[in-house]
Specification:
173 residues; mainly alpha; Nucleotidyltransferase, domain 5; three-stranded mixed β-sheet; 5% strand; ATPase_NBD; Ppx/GppA phosphatase family protein; GppA/Ppx_hydrolase
Length: 173
């Protein structure tokens, strides 16, 4: 288990719905969303950095996968085990590009679905704020999202429980 786990209300859907006005989003709302992300991340990032500099930072959502794809990472057809990274320098460039185009135009980008396109800008702004705050230039894209991680962890716990019960049963025989 991690030493520190923090959840902040910065999901791409929420930030899009609550802060980004217009399609494409207005410059004022983009600036407000960027500031909001930095403010909400400040305290949790301080807590993380008090534990030391991270050796590895991973992005675990479909939004991160889409951002990596538009910045040049391998397509999903290359398989889940191909290393994909998101680089801050590329993300900065694409954050500006995403802010300037509509959701319909975003959906034409490689790896961006029509469902994900409206919230991709918000995801880019939050990712950029997080990478800046953590002082990382690159993050690794995890092929699985949080939901899959929780399912895998549950299977591991169930497997461990079954093994304990089998040992107890064989000890009683």
């Amino acid at each position: 288990m991690p030493e520190l786990a923090v959840s902040v209300p910065l999901g791409a859907g929420r930030v899009t719905r609550d802060l980004l006005v217009g399609d494409p989003a207005s410059a004022t709302s983009v600036k407000a969303a960027r500031r909001h992300a930095r403010e909400l991340l400040a305290e949790p990032v301080r807590a993380f950095l008090s534990l030391g500099r991270p050796d590895l930072v991973a992005g675990t959502s479909k939004t991160f996968r889409s951002l990596a794809r538009i910045t040049g990472a391998a397509p999903s057809a290359a398989g889940p085990l191909v290393r994909r990274e998101l680089h801050l320098v590329d993300l900065r460039l694409w954050s500006s590009r995403l802010a300037a185009i509509s959701a319909a135009d975003r959906s034409a980008l490689p790896g961006v679905s029509a469902l994900r396109a409206p919230q991709l800008l918000a995801g880019a702004l939050v990712a950029e704020a997080a990478m800046d705050a953590l002082g990382v230039e690159t993050l690794v894209i995890c092929p699985w999202a949080t939901r899959e991680g929780l399912i895998i962890r549950r299977f591991e716990l169930l497997d461990a429980q079954i093994q304990r019960e089998e040992r107890q049963t064989s000890a009683m025989l």
